[in-house]
Specification:
With 268 residues, the protein is of the alpha+beta class. The protein folds into two domains: 49-223, Cytochrome Bc1 Complex, Chain D, domain 2, CATH 1.10.760.10; 224-268, no CATH class. Helix content is 49%, strand content 13%. The protein is built from ten helices and six strands. It has helices at 5-31, 49-61, 77-81, 85-91, 109-116, 123-129, 132-140, 167-170, 203-221, 225-257; strands spanning 69-73, 102-103, 142-144, 152-154, 173-182, 185-195. The strands form three sheets. Strands 1-2 form a two-stranded antiparallel sheet. A hairpin with a 7-residue loop joins strand 3 and strand 4. Helix 6 packs across helix 9 and helix 7 packs antiparallel against helix 9 (203-221). The longest helix has 33 residues, at 225-257. It is extended, with a radius of gyration of 28 Å. The two termini are 45 Å apart. The relative contact order is 0.13.
Length: 268
C-alpha cells in the first residue's frame, strides 16, 4: 500500500510535535527541581508488640487530637497489639467512642480550618503514600522557624502547617541549611537539624518513640502485611508445583495427539 506525500508529511509533523512536547516537558521538569534532603534510615518490626503498643499510646492520645485514622477501627487494634479487648479498653481506650467505630479526630474540621487553614490529612493515607523512612524523618525533623505562623517548619515538608507538637518531649531544634534549589530557584534548603534546647526525653529516647509511632502507623495502614509475608512463600510454591504439573500434562497430551514426524518441536 503506497502512502501519499500528504500522509507522510502528516506523520512527520506528528512525530515532530511529540518530540517537541517531550523536550518541553523535560525542560519544565528541570525548571521545578528541588533539592531533596536525606531521609533517616529506619527498620521496623511488625512483630515487636512493645513498639506497637507504645506507638498506639502516643498516636491515639496525641496525633488523634487533630488527625484521624479512618482506615482502621478500634476493634481491629487489640489483635495487632497482642491485647485482649478488656486490656485494650483499660490501658489505651477509645477516647469515649464506640469500640467498633473508625478512629476519627477529636477536633472538628471547622476548628482545624480556623487554626491551620486546612483539614489535617488522615494518617492512614499518609502511611500508605509515604515510606517508613520519610515518616521517621518527618517526626524527628521539626525545627524552629519564626517566619511560620506556627513557629515551626520541617526538613522533609517545607512550610508545613502542623505545629511542632513534639517540642516538649524532643526540645527545640535549629536547621542545618545548604545552598540548593527549590522549584528551580536557588534557595537555602534544610537538610538536617541540630538540638537547640533540651526536652523531657533524650535524643535516643525520642528517636525510639518516633520509631514506635511509625511502626504502629505502618501496621495500621497495612493490616494484612504479616499475613501476606506468612502466606507468600506457600502461594509461590503452589504456583511452581502447578507449573510443573501443567508442563507434564502438556507433554503427555501432545505426545499422543501428534506423531513424532509431524512435530516441529521435539518432546522426548
Amino acid at each position: 500500500m503506497k502512502l501519499s506525500l500528504t500522509s507522510v508529511l502528516q506523520r512527520w509533523t506528528r512525530l515532530g510535535a511529540m518530540l517537541l512536547l517531550t523536550a518541553l516537558a523535560g525542560s519544565a521538569w528541570a525548571s521545578v527541581q528541588t533539592t531533596q534532603p536525606p531521609l533517616r534510615p529506619i527498620t521496623i518490626d511488625l512483630h515487636d508488640q512493645a513498639a506497637l503498643r507504645t506507638g498506639a499510646l502516643y498516636t491515639l492520645h496525641m496525633c488523634v487530637a487533630c488527625h484521624g485514622i479512618q482506615g482502621a477501627r478500634y476493634s481491629e487494634l487489640p489483635p495487632v497489639l497482642g491485647l485482649s479487648k478488656e486490656d485494650f479498653l483499660k490501658y489505651i481506650s477509645t477516647n469515649g467512642r464506640h469500640y467498633h467505630d473508625t478512629i476519627t479526630s477529636n477536633m472538628s474540621e471547622a476548628l482545624m480550618m480556623k487554626f491551620v487553614d486546612m483539614a489535617p490529612p488522615d494518617l492512614t493515607e499518609i502511611a500508605h503514600r509515604r515510606s517508613p523512612a520519610w515518616l521517621y524523618t518527618y517526626l524527628t525533623s521539626f525545627y524552629a522557624d519564626p517566619a511560620r505562623p506556627t513557629g515551626a517548619n520541617n526538613v522533609v515538608f517545607y512550610n508545613v502547617s502542623m505545629p511542632d507538637v513534639f517540642a516538649t518531649m524532643q526540645g527545640l531544634q535549629k536547621p542545618v541549611m545548604v545552598d540548593g534549589l527549590r522549584f528551580g530557584s536557588p534557595a537555602k534548603i534544610a537538610v538536617g537539624v541540630q538540638p537547640l534546647t533540651a526536652g523531657t526525653m533524650s535524643r535516643a529516647q525520642f528517636d525510639q518513640t518516633a520509631k514506635d509511632i511509625v511502626t504502629f502507623l505502618y501496621a495500621v495502614a497495612h493490616p494484612h502485611q504479616q499475613e501476606r509475608m506468612r502466606l507468600g512463600p506457600w502461594i509461590i510454591g503452589l504456583f511452581v508445583m502447578l507449573s510443573v504439573l501443567t508442563y507434564l500434562i502438556y507433554r503427555l497430551y501432545w505426545a499422543r495427539v501428534i506423531t513424532g514426524k509431524q512435530r516441529w518441536w521435539r518432546i522426548r
